[in-house]
Structures are given as structure tokens and as C-alpha cells.
Request: fold
Amino acid sequence: MMGALSHIRVLDLSRILAGPWASQMLGDLGADVIKVENPAGGDDTRRWGPPYMADEHGEATAEAAYYLCANRNKRSVCIDMKAPEGQAQLRELAAQSDVLIENFKVGGAAKYGLDYASLSAINPRLVYCSITGFGQTGPLANRPGYDFLVQAMGGLMSVTGERDGKPGAGPQKVGVALTDIMTGLYAVIGIQAALAEREHSGLGQHVDLALLDVTAATLANQATNYLVGGMNPTRLGNAHPNIVPYQSFVASDGHLIVAVGNDGQFRRYVEVLGVPELADDARFSTNSQRVANRDALVPLLQARMLERGKDEWIALLEQAGVPAGPINTVAEVFAEPQIQARDMQVNLSHPLNPDLQLAGNPIKLSRTPVEYRRPPPQLGEHTDEVI
Reply:
């Protein structure tokens, strides 16, 4: 069975995370992805460890776990793009490709004759995706951008972390490079939209993605809380700005999450807690009132939550139809039967480790399912095959 994008060839000149995440997604969907790497070390993330993948004898290899997360279903080719011969090879590959992904600084690809204007003249059908910190235009276009920096500049850190006045208060980055990941996913959407449009026009186009743009866009309700409601959001820890109670609570033996989404769920929640009168209290009877009176309500709920253990609360709330759950570690996530049933941990046999385990792809297609054809390649593994 052929993948949904098995008719597409992707020339991937990107490195680190946002671009490789996009090309890995396209590869998972069936595209032939050619990862171009510098012969002197390749993608920087190959060395971003420890940890490093162990070989079949348990000895550490040169492949960092970070690199492995974003580079399956690709072929690695070593080309020196600073050399005229390498530039000629890349132009020839671009002429035979449907998509090119790059994350040079603005103007960087033009130095090698690998910019959109140059390559679209060779291949008018080429969909050319540029990923930068701040985009191809604007006053910050020439500034380099990194996920951590843009999480700060894009407002994400201002709404992440414990609220002021609480222990540990202060802005926090998200625990994964979320801006890079989201930019990679938006890049895939833009690329596929351009490919779909090409079916009608016969022409490719330039897809311009910026980490800062993506961060601003994905502020979602926090953005409209400001743009529509005039509220400049602040940090609330694990609480929600628009729904109460929708947060973590401390039970007698640890933390759990309670996510009350409507007034009916709130009534059932306080009934389980043994304080049904709170549902009829004018301060708490509607979500709007609960948001307004958050500081009065939450301590009342928290006092009751300390009376039982977290597993007992989760069982009781699940039985009552109130969303609740544990705060899992990463190890607990991959031990979760639901994750296992959904094939979210997969084995790709690597030349150095036949039992390489990776996180799976969440897209489930009924007719052209995701396939795991290739493990993350070793540096230059496919140079002779491709060139």
C-alpha cells in the first residue's frame, strides 16, 4: 500500500527541529525525503546529548536521542553546499523535487544560488518552504530566532508558570520546544496547501513560516482574551483563564487534574466532593460567576480534595462523568494501555540497534496509513544511492 504522499519528493536542507519535524511528517505520510547534511558533522542535533542511542550490545553510539526524534523516513546525503559542485548537485536535486524545506537565515540560501527565485526558475512546480525566527519580511527579519527566545518574545512564557505571589512564581518555557514543533506542523499545512493548489495552476510557490508568527497564532484563546476582551493574560499556573475549576488539585497523596467544562459537570463534581450546596451558591452556579469568584471557590474545593487519595478521586469522578486524570511522567505515558493500543510507541530497526523505540505518528488514515519505512539515517548513509 502506497502512502498518501508517496508521489512527492522532498529536498530537506533544514536542521535542528522545526524543519526536520515538518519533513519527518511528510515522510511518515509517504513522501521520499532526502535530508541534505554538511559532511563535517551533519545536523547539529546528532551531537545534542546525552542520551545517545545504544547499539545492540548496549554501547553508546554517535546518534543522539534528540536527533532520532525528528528524522525517521528520510535518506541522508552529504553535500558541501559551499562548493560549486555541491551547489550544482543541489540544483539538480531541486529540479527533480516537489518540495524544498530550508531554515537558513534570511538571504542565506541566495549566497549559494539556492533561494526560491533561483530554484523556481529551474523548477516552476517547486513548493519552497522557508522557516526562520521572524519571517522573510519585517524589521526583525534578519535576526536569528530560536525556540526559547521566541517562546519569550511571542508571549507564551508570559502565560506559562505559577501565578505571582505563589511559590516558584515566574515565567516558564514549555517543557518541549513547542514553538519549533508547531512551526513544523504549520509548515506541513502550508506545503500541502501549495501542493493542492499546484494541481490547478501547475505552479509551486514560496511558503514563508516564522516562529514568532506561529507563537502569536497559537496563543489561541489567550490572544482573543486580549484582542477581543481587553484582558492582558497573566500566569495562572495550572488553572484556566476562562473556565473554573479547570486545574490541578492536591489530594492526600499527590496531584491530579480536574477539568470541569460546564455547569452540569460542576454540579456533579461538588456532589462527589460532598458539598452539593456549592452548585446552588450564586457565586458559583455559572462558569462566569466561578471565574469571577475563583479565589473564593478554589480553596473550598482544595480543602475537600485533601480528604482522599488521587486514584480514589479519579475513580469517583470518572464514575460521575467529571473529567479527571493523573499527571503522568513520560515513562507512565508510554506504559499507558491507551497509548500502546494506539501504536504510539513503534520499533524501527536501526543498523546499529534493531530494537530502536520511537514515538509514533498520531495521524490515523484509513486507506493510506502512516508507514515507518526507515529509521533515522546515519550521516551520509544514502549519498551514493541518491547522487
Q: What stands out?
A: The first strand starts at residue 9 and ends at 12.
